[in-house]
Specification:
The chain has 8 helices and no strands. It is mainly α and 227 residues long.
Length: 227
Amino acid sequence: MALPVLVTRVRATLHKQNRKGFTQEQILSAAKELGIDIDNPTAEDTKAVCNKLVETNPDNQPNASELEALTVPTPTSEETVNTSMLESLPTPEITPEVEAPRQETAITPTEKVLIVGTQAKILGIELSTAEAESIANQINFQKRDTDELLEEIKSFLIAFINHRENQNQQQVLATFGEIIQHANASNQRVSEALSSQFQSLSVQLEESRNHFKSSVRSALKCFAIAE
């Protein structure tokens, strides 16, 4: 069972904000409340679910050290620019430069799978070609900063591994249950077979005992000996 697209995108977004610990059930519940399609979400849908989860879980916030890294420093008096001096300077003539149009080369599907597979190997994760293709199809590779793209791929890989481990655990438990059920059924059959054999043996012993008594009576009659 594939992981819903919305779940992987929401986890990737929250992971970049260092908000972790949201379960798949919480994400799906928020999506249900907002009436969002979990298999074909838009960017706005993903943002709405993230906001919903943050609002309903205010304790899940970045720590103080991370917020400090985002704080913009206030300029000192030495860095403050004297506006009057700037106004007295002559305005230079600016010749507009014509920017040459950039040609962006689209990443092919094969290259996307190769990028995902390479990142998986770096993290020590083994993926089949089909699994790498499934993850690559959920990631937007166009017009992305390299570090941001690699971070999102990492988040998708972690979410995929967690999903696969959960499936493997369920499969092991199901197999273990089948083994126990088979063993119980086998024990029941053996018990029934032994019970049947004991009953048959009891009948045979009773018949042998009766036959022996009959033989003894016949022998005693031949010698005219009273019982």
